């Protein structure tokens, strides 16, 4: 079920009413309702893959209890290993089996040996990269004794499958989200209204900006040899906004929906395209994944401790693994490696944490220097997204080659002013609201009621009328 | 909580009422227009129906009382509902229907043409909505009424089709290959039968029979390089299909040794081919 579908528009009010009017007095029943609703939500894609979620849930629930009871370190390690191996095993099989197989065959053929193996037609279960990481955080945190295991299976099942963030995050930590299932939720009017506002903004970003950009980005990327250098640059910029609005729009809808049910999810995006360096960009982009890798991979392998070479190694590991998490394709690996290269100079000069707060926090406009830094960082990310979007490395380099052409300085063949205007509106609103949780969070405080309603209805009607061709959320495939 | 729900409902009621009213007005207006057109079509003596192949017949050679209703990639499902709506009018004058039937009409492309998960399938809704019997449609879903795109759907004219002239000749192998792949898919050697086309072809035949209308089936020419590549099962499928229906006559030009000069691509005639084969068709069925 897509957030931007009629199905969801019907599903959400039904679950909301049952949740607050039928089951509010019984915590277990309320959690059970969330599990049922979440499984239904997921089953509408493919009910067969529900078994994977149920299996992961049961396994990690049991492993959690065993880890807590066991004092023998060897056995504890074994339990943790089982949990991680099974979760990563699922992920590895469904997502990476064909990739590894094809690459093995290729490597062997380089040595003149021919391997006979046929790739399987494997369907990638939606959201598998998200919920496996979420459940792994539970067992790892118990192993590290940062968290007590739960004895409440329903609450745990609700934590693993919570429908707003089940298929594309934010990847929640058990320490943050699970305790919220233990206590009775109270309806908070202000939080719910703000949640609706966040859903509205998320839908606008997804339907109006991302889907409209997608039309041109797809056309240009799929036929890059037919377009001039300037058009290819425009195509890459469209994809840069598409992926941001698609994914951050999804996160906004997920977080807003959770707030309607009395839950608080972590912030996943914090105006990444206003970043002044790549370090800041990565603190603002897909925060739940970046911090997951930081806590469960980067720090355990040494982080920024040790000599220069181990620092460099660790940076490359985390960025390449992060790239590979996105998909079984060398394009994602190169995208990760490129970001590591961007990041290295900052880290080696220990400059990676110089821009912590939001840009121009005390002023309405950035300084010239800040503007240049923002544009430079943005350009670096546009370049990296070319690898991310391309179907293969040949296409990535073909695309870059197409940009480096004399016609780079000509007018683009495609110049959709409507989409460019939408992007302009987005940038202005996001800049205006950059100090808030999401761009239009506090907008109502600065507006008179009539202006506020005009604004909200403009967003609503833009979603209804100006949306692009319906596209699936990009991150569903990861 | 109740206050919250009240406010949300109030907020949403504005667009719901506005959209609902607009939909109603647009639907009524377009429904009327479409009704008038169907009424005019019912006064034609001959109807030319089918997909883009039939659109390439030469309009100047037909009598004035002939109407061309073929449209690109039209499935028999849509053709059936178009004809049914025409025959449901008062004072129907239709005597003959010339319908395109060729092996590619049973190709996998027609499995997808009404698949709403596919880009072309999504467009089909817009093209055929006003022809369909929405109460019994396999394609229309009442949930669509709630979709904001529904207004766009009922705002736009349905696809009536019409004559098309192509000037290209002697198509190259790239052009032929492109069309071949579009019709039969990438794994084009594998035969996949199409069920719905046959079902609605039978219904079309029954409809003509019931209305006392002569049904002429025509297989317009293919480029010889295109014919060679088609899996023979598709020809067999078409023969079986024709055995299961009643029709007055089947005029088959695919078996002709077609001059590439007459073809604009793999399966469409160009203007000179159109003149030649339309004349031959008229000789065969004598409806000039």
Quick gist of this model?
Chain A is mainly α and 478 residues long. Chain A is 65% helix and 0% strand.
Note down, in words, how this protein is organized.
The complex is a heterodimer of chains A (478) and B (288). Chain A is mainly alpha-helical. In chain A, 65% of the residues lie in helices and 0% in strands. In chain A, helix 3 crosses helix 6 and helix 4 runs antiparallel to helix 5. The radius of gyration of chain A is 23 Å and the shape is globular. Chain B is built from eleven helices and five strands; from the N terminus they run αβαβαβαααααβααβα. Chain B has a five-stranded parallel β-sheet with strand order 2-1-3-4-5, sandwiched between helices. In chain B, helix 3 packs parallel to helix 8. Chains A and B meet through helix 1, helix 8 and helix 17 of A and helix 1 of B.
Core attributes:
heterodimer, A: 478 residues, mainly alpha, 2 domains, B: alpha/beta, Rossmann fold, five-stranded parallel beta sheet, 8% strand
Our estimate of the beta-strand percent of chain A is under 5%
CATH topology of chain B: Rossmann fold
Distance between the termini of chain B: 74 Å
| Mean residue pLDDT of chain A | 90
C-alpha-based Rg of chain B, rounded = 21 Å
N-end to C-end Cα span of chain A: 16 Å
Shape of chain B: globular
The tally of strands of chain B reads: 5
Low-confidence stretches of chain B: none
């Amino acid at each position: 079920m897509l957030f931007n579908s009629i199905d969801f528009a019907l599903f959400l009010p039904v679950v909301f009413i049952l949740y607050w009017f039928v089951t509010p007095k019984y915590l277990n029943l309320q959690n059970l309702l969330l599990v049922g609703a979440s499984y239904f939500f997921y089953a509408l894609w493919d009910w067969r893959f529900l078994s994977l979620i149920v299996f992961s849930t049961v396994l990690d629930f049991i492993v959690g209890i065993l880890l807590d009871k066991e004092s023998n370190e060897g056995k504890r390690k074994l339990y943790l290993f089982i949990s991680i191996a099974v979760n990563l095993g699922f992920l590895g099989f469904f997502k990476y089996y064909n990739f590894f197989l094809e690459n093995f065959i290729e490597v062997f053929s380089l040595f003149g040996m021919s391997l006979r193996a046929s790739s399987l037609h494997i369907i990638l279960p939606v959201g598998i990269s998200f919920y496996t990481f979420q459940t792994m955080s539970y067992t790892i945190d118990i192993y590290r004794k940062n968290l007590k295991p739960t004895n409440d299976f329903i609450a745990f099942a609700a934590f693993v499958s919570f429908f707003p963030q089940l298929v594309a995050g934010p990847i929640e930590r058990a320490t943050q989200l699970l305790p919220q299932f233990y206590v009775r939720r109270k309806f908070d009017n202000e939080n719910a209204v703000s949640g609706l506002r966040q859903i509205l903004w998320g839908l606008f970003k997804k339907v109006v900006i991302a889907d409209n950009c997608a039309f041109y980005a797809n056309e240009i990327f799929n036929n890059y040899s037919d377009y001039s250098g300037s058009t290819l640059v425009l195509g890459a910029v469209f994809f840069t906004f598409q992926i941001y609005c698609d994914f951050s729009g999804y996160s906004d809808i997920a977080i807003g929906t959770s707030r309607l049910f009395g839950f608080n999810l972590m912030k996943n995006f914090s105006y990444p395209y206003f970043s002044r360096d790549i370090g800041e960009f990565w603190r603002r982009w897909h925060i739940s994944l970046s911090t997951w890798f930081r806590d469960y991979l980067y720090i355990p392998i040494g982080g920024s401790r040790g000599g220069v070479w181990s620092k460099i190694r660790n940076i490359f590991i985390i960025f390449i693994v992060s790239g590979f998490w996105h998909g079984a394709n060398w394009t994602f690996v190169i995208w990760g490696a490129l970001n590591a290269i961007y990041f290295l100079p900052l880290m080696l000069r220990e400059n990676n944490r110089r821009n912590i707060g939001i840009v121009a926090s005390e002023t309405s406009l950035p300084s010239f220097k800040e503007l240049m830094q923002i544009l430079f960082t943005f350009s670096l990310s546009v370049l990296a997204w070319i690898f991310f979007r391309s179907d293969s490395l040949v296409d990535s380099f073909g695309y870059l080659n197409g940009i480096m052409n004399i016609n780079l300085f000509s007018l683009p063949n495609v110049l959709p002013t409507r989409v460019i205007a939408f992007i302009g509106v987005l940038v202005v609103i996001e800049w205006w609201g950059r100090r808030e949780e999401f761009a239009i969070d506090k907008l109502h405080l600065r507006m008179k009621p009539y202006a506020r309603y005009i604004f909200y209805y403009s967003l609503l009607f833009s979603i209804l009328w100006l949306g692009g061709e319906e596209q699936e959320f990009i991150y569903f495939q990861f | 909580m109740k206050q919250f729900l009240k406010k949300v409902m109030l907020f949403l009621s504005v667009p719901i009422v506005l959209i609902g009213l607009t939909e109603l007005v647009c639907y009524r207006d377009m429904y009327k227009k479409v009704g008038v057109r169907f009424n005019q079509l019912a006064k034609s003596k001959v109807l030319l129906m089918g997909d883009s192949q039939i659109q390439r017949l030469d309009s100047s050679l037909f009598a004035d009382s002939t109407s061309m209703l073929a449209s690109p990639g039209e499935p028999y499902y849509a053709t059936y509902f178009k004809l049914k709506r025409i025959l449901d009018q008062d004072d129907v004058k239709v005597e003959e229907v010339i319908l395109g039937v060729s092996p590619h009409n049973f190709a996998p492309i027609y499995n997808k043409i009404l698949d709403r998960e596919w880009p072309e399938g999504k467009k089909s809704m817009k093209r055929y909505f006003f022809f369909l019997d929405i109460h019994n449609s396999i394609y229309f879903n009442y949930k669509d009424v709630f979709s904001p795109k529904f207004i766009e759907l009922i705002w736009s004219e349905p696809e009536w089709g019409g004559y098309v002239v192509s000037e290209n000749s002697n198509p190259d192998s790239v052009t032929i290959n492109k069309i071949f792949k579009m019709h039969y898919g990438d794994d084009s050697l594998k035969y996949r039968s199409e069920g719905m086309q046959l079902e609605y072809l039978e219904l079309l035949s029954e409809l003509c029979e019931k209305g006392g209308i002569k049904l002429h089936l025509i297989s317009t020419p293919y480029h010889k390089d295109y014919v060679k590549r088609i899996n023979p099962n598709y020809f067999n499928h078409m023969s079986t299909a024709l055995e299961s229906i009643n029709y007055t006559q089947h005029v088959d030009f695919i078996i002709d040794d077609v001059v590439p000069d007459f073809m604009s691509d793999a399966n469409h005639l160009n203007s000179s081919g159109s003149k030649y084969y339309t004349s031959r068709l008229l000789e065969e069925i004598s409806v000039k």
